[in-house]
Amino acid sequence: MVQDVVEAILRDAGCSFSTAREVADHLIDTELSGIESHGVMRVMQYADQFAKGVMDPRAEAIIHRNEKGDDEVDGRGGIGIPAMRLAVDHCVTKAKEKGIAALPVRHVGHTGRLGAYAERAADEGCLAIIIGGGGRQNWRQVAPYGGKRALLPTNPFCFGIPGGQQGPVIVDFATSMIAGGWLYAARAAGGKVPFGTIMNREGELSDEPADYFNGGAILPKGGAMGYGLAVIAELICEAMLGPVTTEVNW
Fold first, then answer.
1. Cα gap 148→151, rounded to integer Å
2. Angle between helices 114-122 and 80-98 (to 10 degrees)
3. Do 155 and 174 form a contact (C-beta atoms < 8 A)?
4. H helices present in the chain, as ranges
5. Is the Cα dihedral 196, 109, 114, 36 positive or negative?
6. 245 confidence band (pLDDT: 50, 70, 90)
7. Contact at 8 Å (CB) between 80 and 249?
8. What distance in Å separates the CA atoms of residue 207 and residue 210, rounded to the nearest whole number?
9. Is 16 helix (H, G, I), strand (E, B) or coil?
């Protein structure tokens, strides 16, 4: 059974039973949603990052509650999926009390599919806005508009709006032409990506994943518009997280 295999890999890497179960549930649900780039294939990435010390398999996310109300979730260097679930649940509770809530999630590894957390909030009757940023020091994947050298992460945005009996409206997208996970998936399958979504190290458009991994870059979605959104994501998240972060959520 896929669930058992994924959990076993995570347990062997040092994760607790509860973390392994939660991460496996998330990856399988994402896979069944048709989003292979953030699905089961990610478990090997996680295992590798645990082995290299990029993430701590034993870390447990915690909430720092501050008197001024500027709470934050600290993933303590662990995988980001439990931390994001903790953050969403905390924000939902606060929003129901105060009408609105926001908090940063710091020191986390990959958080998986952001749409899953927007769905979780929307199912509780809350509008959710999730922005990924603060990782450009470590994850230079996307070239700025008009450039050819990767300087930014894929800086995703995600929105969730309650929809009653019809189900929520979820919009989850990277500000790059293609999410980084699709490049890993294409490389693993020996396939290509849509032409013009990436370029090689010389700045020439390409559809070969190898060109990206050999010093190339992803193009921003919609040219200047995607680049502008990525810059906004970095600035908003840096304002909340601070200029020095150790995020590996890309």
1. 9
2. 30
3. yes
4. 2-12, 17-32, 42-52, 80-98, 114-122, 180-189, 209-213, 224-241
5. positive
6. low
7. yes
8. 9
9. coil
Q: In whole angstroms, give the CA distance from residue 198 to residue 126.
A: 36
Q: In sequence order, what DSSP letters do the residues of 69-101 get, joined into one string?
A: S--EEEEEEE-HHHHHHHHHHHHHHHHHHHS--
Fill in the DSSP letter of residue 144: P
Answer yes or no: are the C-beta atoms of 14 and 58 closer than 8 Å: yes
**Helix orientation angle between 42-52 and 2-12, rounded to the nearest 10 degrees:** 10
Distance CA 124, CA 162 (A): 8
Decide if 110 contacts 249 (C-beta within 8 A).
yes
Task: Measure the CA–CA gap between 100 and 130, rounded to whole angstroms.
Answer: 14
The rounded radius of gyration (Å) of the Cα atoms in the chain is: 18
Give me 9's structure tokens. 């890999």
Residues 6-23 have a mean pLDDT of 97
Q: Does the CA dihedral 25-141-53-85 come out positive or negative?
A: negative
CA-nearest of 42, 186, 16, 13 to 112 is 42
Cα separation of 165 and 143, whole Å? 41
> Across residues 84-98, what is the average pLDDT?
97
* Cα 105 to Cα 32: distance, rounded to the nearest angstrom: 26
Helix (H, G, I), strand (E, B) or coil at 102: coil
CB atoms within 10 A of CB 17: 10
Determine the pLDDT at residue 250: 42
